[in-house]
Each structure stands twice: as structure tokens, then as C-alpha cells.
Amino acid sequence: MPMIDVYAKEGTFRDRKALAKDLAAAVMRWEKVPDISLFRNNTAAFVHDLPADALSNVAGDSNYVRVQVLTPVGVLDRDKQLGVVKELTEIIAAAAGDPTVHRAHVGAADRVAGGRLGCSRARQHRRGPDRGCARRTHRARRKEIHLGATHR
Predict the structure, then answer these.
(1) Distance (Å, rounded) from C-alpha 135 to C-alpha 97?
(2) Cα within 13 Å of Cα(41), Cβ side
(3) Where in the sequence is the domain holding 17, given as residue range(s)?
(4) What is the pLDDT of residues 24-47, one digit of tens each?
(5) Whole-number Å distance between alpha carbons of 84 and 76
(6) What φ, ψ does residue 105 adopt, rounded to 5°?
(7) Widest CA span of the chain, in angstroms?
(8) CATH classification of the domain holding 34
(9) What pairing do the DSSP bridges indicate for beta strands 64-72 and 147-151?
(10) Is the pLDDT of residue 151 over 70?
(11) pLDDT by residue (tens digit) across 43-80?
(12) How much of the chain is helix, strand and coil, in % rounded to 5?
């Protein structure tokens, strides 16, 4: 199931619950999954309010919004990734009450289920340094293709 995380300075969004619901619904539409309870109950967004001093660029600005969407590998092809980035950026801008969203970064990435493909510490310890495990983990990380759009 997809994971959606939004990080922004406290006070950026007035209605965080509506924002989370809108983002989750948009990702479901782009994934083209059936509108059934299995997907509605397992597609969620998390809005993280950060203190203004918890984020900064080199110049000291903290007016950023970061959205990260992780989906199972292959669910969003390139066209769907571009579409979800565009729509989520529009949703964020509307929720923030700022059509330009000074610095919004929306990223969509594939993730391999389980992340490490079963390469647990116990398994590595039992087998010793397992290069096969490391290679599979490296392949899994390579599949996390990052697609981002920054709007000013």
C-alpha cells in the first residue's frame, strides 16, 4: 500500500485531516485501484507539523513543504508519476492557501515490499557476510526511482 508523508512548518495547513484525505484519494486515483474498502482503509497520508526552526535552507528560509509518496514497484509508470506529482502539488497549494507554494517538493518513488528483500541481520549472521544479500539490497535501493518537482 502507498505511504504518503507531508512535512511542513506548523501553521502551513488549516485543515490537516482534509489535506490527508485529499492526498490519499488522489494517489488512489492515479494508482487506478478499485474504490473498495481494502484500498480506502489502507491508503493514508500523514501530515507532519515541524517547528519553524526544524527546517532550513542555507539562507535560513523555512517556508518549505515536502511530500513523499512511496508506492509498490511498477504501480506508477512515468506518466502516472508525473500526474500524481502535478495533482499533489495543486492539492498542497490549495490547502496552504498559496497558489505558488513558495517551495513545494513532491516526490514519488517505487519501493520494494519489505525494503531489504528478506536480508535480516539474523540471516546475515547465520550465513556470515552474504554478498548475495547485499546485491539484492542494492538492487532494491536502485528501484527507488525519485521523481520530484520543485515549484517556486
Answers:
(1) 46
(2) 3
(3) 3-151
(4) 999 999 999 989 999 999 899 999
(5) 9
(6) -125, 115
(7) 55
(8) 3.30.429.10
(9) unpaired
(10) no
(11) 999 999 999 899 888 988 887 888 998 888 888 888 99
(12) 40, 25, 35
